[in-house]
Design brief:
Strand content: 5-15%
Order of helices and strands: EHEHHHEEHHEHEHEHEHHH
Radius of gyration: 17 Å
CATH architecture: 3-Layer(aba) Sandwich
Number of domains: 1
Number of helices: 12
Helix content: 40-55%
Structural class: alpha/beta
Strand order of the largest sheet: 3-4-2-5-1-6-7-8
Amino acid sequence: MADLTPIPGKTMSVIAVYSMKGGVGKSSTAVNLAWNSAVNSSRRTLLWDLDPQSAASFLLKGNRSKKDRAHAMVAGTVKPSKLIKHTEIKNLDLLAADVSLRGLDRLFFQIDKKKHLGKLLKEMGKSYDRIILDCPPGLTETSEQILHNAKIVIVPVIPSPLSERALTDVQLFLDSSGKKHAPLLPVYTMVDRRRTTHKQSLARKPSWPVIPMTSAVEHMAKLQMPIGSFAPRSPAAQSYARIWRGIEKRLAKN
C-alpha cells in the first residue's frame, strides 16, 4: 500500500502514452519515460497501467492481481492507496493493470460520467508530480477520456505508412470532436535504419524523435527493468532521456 500524502505546492502533470495499435513499443515507452521522470528529474512519479494486457506492470515487476481490483478502483469501491505500490526505483510508484480493465468502457457508459477519469487523476495527483499513463490501444471511451485529461500525449509509431496513417486518424478524430485536447507528440519506435521503409519514413519526418531497435529494448522483458537501470549509456536509453527532457521543457512552458 502506498502512502498518498499530498505534496504541498506541487503542480501535477499527466503524460499519456497512447497508440491506436498494439505492438508498437507503447508500454516500453511508458516505463522508460516514467523511469526518467523519477530518476533523472527526481519527480515523484506514478505509472498508471490502464492496458488490460498489463505489459508495463510486468516490466516493473508488478504482481498480477488475482482479483479484478483495477476495475473496482476506477468504480470507486477500492481506494487507489490500496493498489498503488512502490517499485524498486526511487520516486516511482505503480498502479498495476489486470484483465478487469477490459470492462472499463462499459463502466464509463454505465456511470455516464465523462469527467470521471479526470477526477481520479486530480485526486491521485495530489501526491505526485507526474502521472504517466500506459493507455489501452484503440479509440475507446477510456482512451478518449485519457486524451482529454493529459497535458501531453506521446504516440509511438513504427516507421511505416500504415502506422503514420493511424496517427493521422486519431488527430482527425480529436479535431472533429471540437473539444480541447492535449497535443499529440509522435515518436518513432523500433527503428531499424537498415530497412528501406524505415529510412524513408525517417526522411519524411526528420524532426520526430527516434527510439532504435536494440538488444537493450529486448532485455527489458527478461530483466523486468527500465533500460536506464541496466544500460544507461545505450542508444535507446539516451533517446528516451532526450525525449523526457523535451517533455519537461514543454511542461515548463505551460
